[in-house]
Amino acid sequence: MTLPAGTMREAVIDTEAIADNVRAFRRRTGVDVIAVVKADGYGHGAVRAAQGALDGGATRLGVVDVDEALALRRGGIDAPLMAWLHAPGLSFGRAVEAHIELGISDLDQLNRAAAAATGDRPARLHLKVETGLARNGIPPEAQRSVFAEAARLERIGRVHVVGIFSHLSNTSPDDDRDAIARFDESLAVAAASGLTPRVRHLAATQAAIDLPESRYDAVRIGLGIYGLSPFSYRSPAELGLRPAMTLRAAIAAVRRVPAGHGVSYGYTYRTDRETTLALVPLGYADGVPRQASGVGPVVIGDRRFPVAGRIAMDQFVVDVGDHPVAVGDEAVLFGDPTYGAPLADDWAQAAGTINYEVVTRIGPRVPRRTATR
């Protein structure tokens, strides 16, 4: 395959794969799917990913902050949408006006949300409770008073408590079950305070797959809707998922070199025979991890090769031996293994990181293009 004329590098995004992955989670869990499209849709493009997820039946979207949520609204996304991490002192007026649901982690945020409500538009809230991750969330000792105030504000029409949620650590099944027990205790306190949230959500991708008791009314799926596995020992295919991003580039230069020829900065790689070198115009400025120098996998034609030498800011080299290659040929870093591509997980292993980071770090210099069928 070749890239479109004039295209040096691109990430091809399969929105049908995103839709199919949402459907797979709906079938597996039997509850609503909240599709997490934070960090520009895990690098896939937030509006594109949101639309794919909604096409697959997601009932709500999740992002980190209000700015991300407002960008989705500007992009034409009008589905239920929540944001849960806020700058200190942030005014929630724009969020309430745009029908953005707010994750609330303390009394101050609750009061600011209520202050942003208008006569005919209460602030829609998801109260986050701390269940052991030691990040944000209402701690157990404050829940009774915060829930009571939320119930009072709901009675007078300033807020509407849509949901209660938390997050698991994914440390072990026993640790997560301890967190589930704490979440249940929080739900009991909320009920005693007069709150009746319709959407209780705790599980993200890993727990949604392996801990049925964590599913409640909805699951928040981020990594999984992009067709990536949260498990090092289970592939996306084993989970019924399809990777949605293919990162590829057009070979920019080809040269034949003798044995002993140095490659890239520092000559950490020298050829051991006469061979062909192919230049791939992607580098760490594009999000390709420099830590994967010498080992990151690339498919050219029907063959897989490792990066030869150091990954530079804009490019890296592949030693293809006697394999036929020409300028303009396609080099695939990762994508759907059904079509012979490496997985993002392969690059994560090569770089000593996780697949989440591999896809989310792909930079803005790499154009995103929606796949066509």
How does this structure look, described?
This protein is α/β, with parallel strands linked by helices and 373 residues long. The protein folds into two domains: 31-226, Alanine racemase (TIM Barrel, Alpha-Beta Barrel); 245-370, Lyase, Ornithine Decarboxylase, Chain A, domain 1 (Beta Barrel). It has eleven helices and 19 strands. The chain has helices spanning 15-29, 38-42, 46-55, 66-74, 93-97, 107-116, 140-155, 173-192, 205-210, 344-351, 355-360; strands at residues 9-13, 32-36, 60-63, 81-83, 100-104, 123-128, 159-165, 199-201, 218-221, 245-250, 253-257, 262-263, 269-270, 275-280, 297-300, 303-308, 316-321, 330-334, 368-370. The strands form three sheets. Strands 11-14-17-16-15-18-10-1-19 form a nine-stranded mixed β-sheet. The protein has an eight-stranded parallel β-sheet with strand order 8-7-6-5-4-3-2-9. Helix 1 (15-29) packs across helix 3 (46-55).
How is this structure best summarized?
By secondary structure, the protein is of the alpha/beta class. The chain has helices spanning 15-29, 38-42, 46-55, 66-74, 93-97, 107-116, 140-155, 173-192, 205-210, 344-351, 355-360, and strands spanning 9-13, 32-36, 60-63, 81-83, 100-104, 123-128, 159-165, 199-201, 218-221, 245-250, 253-257, 262-263, 269-270, 275-280, 297-300, 303-308, 316-321, 330-334, 368-370.
